[in-house]
Structures are given as C-alpha cells and as structure tokens.
Amino acid sequence: MSSLAEKDRPIVQLLLNAGTCPRCVLRFCCVGSQMLYRQPHKDLMKDLQEFLKNSEEKEDTVCLAVADPPCKRIRLEPRQEGADDLNHNGAVPQLPSAGDGNIAVESSAGKVCNVCLGILQEFCEADFVKKVCQKVNSADYQFTSFVFSVSLPPQLSVRERAAWLGVKQQMRNLGLPLAKDDIIQLKEAYKWIIHPQLSEELGVPADGKSLFEVSVVFAHPETDEECHFLATACPDCFKPAKNKQSVFTRMAVIKALEKIKEEHFLKHFPCPPSSPKNLCDALEIQCNNGAVFVAGRYNKYSRNLPQTPWIIDGERKLESSVEELISEHLMAKFKADSFNFSSSGREDVDVRTLGNGRPFAIELVNPRRIRFSAEEMKRLQQAINDSSDKIQVRDLQLVTRSAIGRMKEGEEEKTKTYSALIWTDKAIQREDIAFLDDIKELKLDQKTPLRVLHRRPLAVRCRLIHTMKSEYIDEHHFRLHLKTQAGTYIKEFVHGDFGRTKPNIGSLLNRTADILELDVESVDVDWPPTLAD
Amino acid sequence: RICVITLAEAHPLLQSGKTIKNINYQISANCSRLQNKVSGKSKRLCLFIFQMQGAQFLTELAPLCRISSSDGEEYTIYSCIRGRLIEVNENILSNPALLQEKPSTEGYIAVVLPKFEESKSITQGLLTQKEYEEVLLKRRSSAS
C-alpha cells in the first residue's frame, strides 16, 4: 500500500488550500494504490487533514490517520530523517501551520474540485452509478462485459497543468526538490473507482476489449472559455475545422499544452486553478455494441431483382432487392440500428444466381442481441427462405470482421462459371460452334462497357475465359457455358459492346450475336464454410 | 445517359460508291480528339470525377473528325450532342471500312456523356427512328 511521505506535505497543503478534492491530491502525490481512491470522499478528506496536522507533532509520535482500525487508510510515516527536510542552507523549511490546514479543509469540503470539476467527487458516487446502470438496463442490450469510456471537457487538461505548475512553483519557492514522478491520470483514477461499482451493478466485468461500450460525455460550460488563451500562444493548433462546432477540441488543447511555454501559461492562467461554482454535467449516457457479422451464400431466382435497392431521384425503380430481403430478418432478430451489405461480386438485375450461390456478409451495426446458437441461426435461415421465392440463403452463420476481407478476395481472385443463352443473326449449324469447346485461356481486352461508363472510369481490362462448352439449340440459338476470371463482363463478351470487347462471340463466329439470358452457375469461393444441414 | 455518336444512315458516306480515304481526329492545330484525357486505372470515384474534368467538353457543333473520300469530298462529323467526350473510336482509324460496313455498331465515331441535368432535354431533342424516316421521305419527295 502506498502512503504519503514528508515530501508530499507541501503539495497536499497547497492543493487543499486551493480547493482540490482529496482524490486529486492523491493523484498529484503519485499515490498508485487503487484501493485508496475507492475509499469514501469524507474519509479521505479526514485522513489528509490528519496527515497535515501530524506535521506539527513531535518526531517520535507515531502518526496514525485515526485511532479506529476500520478508518485507518493511510499509514503515515513519522518524521524519521529530519535532515532530509532541510533545504540546502540547512534551515528548516517553513510550512504553513496546522491551523492553516484546518482552514484548507473547511474551504475544500463541499466545494467542487478545482482540478477535476467534480469527476472524482460526485461522479464516483453510488447515485451516478445507479443512473448509468438504469440507462444501460433500459437500453436492453445483450452483453457479457463492458468498457466504460468517458469524454472529458478539454479545460480539464488546462486545469491539470495549472495545478501542476502551481505545485512546481510552490516547491521551488520552498527550495524543495520535486521528483518527476508520474502523476496519476484523472481518467485512470476515475476508472479505478467506478469500474468495480458498475461491474457490481451490471453483473459483468469491465474489459478494455469489450464490444459493449457505455459512454458518458461530460461538459462544463461555465469554464469552456478557459481554453481560449491557448489560441494566442499557439494559434496554429486551432485551425477551424469544417465539421466541428468548437475549434477547442481535446486534441487541439493537448497539442497546445505541449507547445506552450511555462511562463506564458503562468501569465495567463491562475496556478493552481480557481474553484468553479458548479459541477460538470453528464450530458449523455450512451450504449453501443460492436458490430456483429453474419455471412452466408445467396441464390437469386428472379430476373427482376436488383442486388441493392434501385432508387433514382427518390423514386424506387424496382421493388425490393437481394440485400433487403436478407437483412430485413437479420435486423429484426439482432435488433440493430443499421446494416452494411457486401458480397463477393454482383450480378445484374436480370441475371439469376444458381448453384451454391454467391457469398455475402452483412455487418449489423449496434445490435442489441448478439448471442445466437447454431440452431437459432438455422431457424433464422429458414425464416428468410420461407419469406421469399426470389432468393434463398444457405450456410448462414456468425463470422468475424475478417470475413469482409475474405469476400473481397473472392471477388477479385476467384473464378466464376456462367450459362448464357445466345442469339445469332445468321444461321448456325452444330459444327459452326463446336470449336468454341476447344478454346482454352482465351484472352479478352475489355474496355469499360458503355452501360457502366457513367459511373466507372474508362479503362481496358484484360480478362481470361478459361473454358467454354456450347450446347446447340437451333439455327439462331445456342447455350454457352463458360468459366471465367473474376471481373469479366459476360454480356459484353457475347455482343461485343460496339467492338469494345475483343474478341467476342460475334467476332469468333463471324456473325452478330446477342445475349438473351445469363445465369451465374457458380462463384468459386470456398468461403463461408459450408454448414451441414 | 451515355451517347454513342454514329453516322446517320442517310449520310453520303454510307451511300454506295463512296470509299473512305482518310479519317482524321485532328480538328485544329491545338485540338485532337485522340488526346482526350480520360484514361485511368482506378475504380475510385474521386479519380473518376477527376478524369471527367479532364475530358474535352463538346457543344453540338464541335467537330469530332474529318473524313475524306477518294472522290475528293471532305466531310466534318459534328458531335450534335452537348457533353463530355469519353472516347473516339480508334478502330476506324486502322480499319476505315468498319465505318461503312457496321456504321451503327463497331463503326461508331465517338462516345459522349452529357451532363446529368441536361440528359432529359437532350433526349427530347432527338428524333425517333420513325421520325427520322419521315424526315428522309419528305426530303426525297421534295428533291424529286
């Protein structure tokens, strides 16, 4: 257990005089014992008073905070090595008398701390904890741990620096050395105190890596303008940003505090800082769950269904979409705020997706429900499949964020197979198309198709048709099965796109060809893992 | 809406007997339609917009190319559409016969993308196939 030593005495005295709360005093004395901070405010104050009072007593008196053991929090050391307290001249440093200490206590008690503005005071109490937990419970989230994040007003950094400079000055005046120990950070101490209480109320542990975040934003409008003087010292730290309301953001203030010279700071800001009238306000208590990812494969049986909603000028051009038909059910079950749909490539509105289907992943943002068993996922899959005959899903499962990367990999690298129904202007016989079956690794040069030029840059892409298999139907029709490299435009390979895809079926057959129907037969990605039925 | 500029079916160059001698995309000393900067290798939207800004903007009377036939005639093909020039068909430079054999498909002249706001008014200013044929009929009857 840490304790206060003689060297801390002037610091404690100065800060208590200035209206600093006991916990902040401990922080500035680099007291690292978490337990201490959790003690009730009143007890800590009493102990500090005792500590100060005992400075006036004789060396050989064993100093205890208070007589009764339950209240004994700070184990104080008697003044053993008096020589250490002497300054270089050998004179005993003059410390304020015990009488002054009492005045400091009186002026400190009940006041809002001049450093933490109440964060380590009121906002550590059971009432606030209850308020937070009420908000969490009413939000009805499913979670197994939590991370508590706190947003502090920027002026706290200013006040922290001011208190430190005040201490530094005082020690210099007294001719005392000031060790460059690490002051305990406000946020850290706050979490030491509040985490166990939140944990107890919510029934789950605090975990820095938790996906469930409870966040509180604190503000102190009374002192908002305290940061403004920094703009004169470091104007380039405070450039007006477009989206932010105030230029004095936390980051900007911290940056300026790093740059500002001590003398300048001392000139423009009281060190230690003055006592505020009011506490901080806890503006918002919000809950957020990290996104969950659901993956699967979808089949599309409609030739009239876009993958994503087709809306132009606010008007929906076609009813529904693959993405909506799938995510509707997921959104409801997971109780999420929104979703992001991605898939391993896309097909046109009029193209069916057959075979094993196309891999997709849906990110569910801020879900209230996160735990689903394999059984429940199966039932969810069934519900989606029962709700529509335009699409079907399989292998529906929870996956990690890395899923998205795997899918995009599939989009860019993996082969696809297709079946195209082709029409020709001039008659064909079986022998006219038989040669197509023998062509392997056909190299295409495809300029960006005209039909997508309004939204894609003009470029030439080199793509491979790995294999083809033709099925003669009649003099003007045949079916072609092809296996192609990812990113190949099949329709353009058939009709040639004004000669901008070369070669094309038309040029190969020396006719004019057009595509009547296209189906995706397979998307050759072995992800997500196939689930047993 | 993307527009593909092609020779109209009544164009003299598409009448029998004409042979194309030369196709030139150099419009003036400083302007060549071949130097239209719209090439890029990225799918990113910001690069796409940048490319669009680099592309030459055409008005209705902007010349796309000049075509000379072996009988000494020279024809200027105009854009007829306001918009950004996306590409000119380089295939007809290497194979001028394409222009006459497949004027409406592989023998196209250029691709132009009108401004989004002007798209509708441009479409409305064009003739349908039927209306065009009526124009031709009238022309022929007044000529004879």
Can you describe what's shown?
- The complex is a heterodimer of chains A (533) and B (144).
- Chain A has helices spanning 9-18, 22-28, 34-38, 41-53, 98-108, 126-139, 155-173, 186-202, 229-233, 250-259, 262-268, 322-334, 374-387, 402-413, 430-434, 490-495, 505-509; strands spanning 147-151, 212-219, 281-289, 292-300, 311-312, 315-316, 338-343, 351-365, 391-399, 416-424, 442-447, 460-474, 477-484, 501-502, 513-523.
- Chain A is an alpha+beta fold and 533 residues long.
- Chain A folds into three domains: 6-56 and 114-226 and 269-288, no CATH class; 292-411, Alpha-Beta Plaits (2-Layer Sandwich); 416-523, 2-Layer Sandwich (Alpha-Beta Plaits), CATH 3.30.70.3190.
- In chain A, a hairpin with a 7-residue loop joins strand 7 (338-343) and strand 8.
- The model of chain A is unreliable at 58-108 (pLDDT under 50).
- Chain B is of the alpha+beta class and 144 residues long.
- Chain B has a single domain, classed as RNA polymerase II/Efflux pump adaptor protein, barrel-sandwich hybrid domain (OB fold (Dihydrolipoamide Acetyltransferase, E2P), Beta Barrel).
- Chain B has helices spanning 45-54, 91-94, 97-101, 119-124, 129-143, and strands spanning 3-5, 20-24, 57-58, 63-69, 74-78, 83-88, 110-113.
- In chain B, the strands form two sheets. In chain B, strands 1-7-6-3 form a four-stranded antiparallel beta sheet, with no helix packed on it. A three-stranded antiparallel beta sheet of chain B has the order 2-4-5, with no helix packed on it.
- In chain B, a hairpin with a 4-residue loop joins strand 4 and strand 5 (74-78).
- The longest helix of chain B is centred in the last third of the chain and has 15 residues, at 129-143.
- The relative contact order of chain B is 0.21.
- Chains A and B meet through loops of A and helix 1 of B.
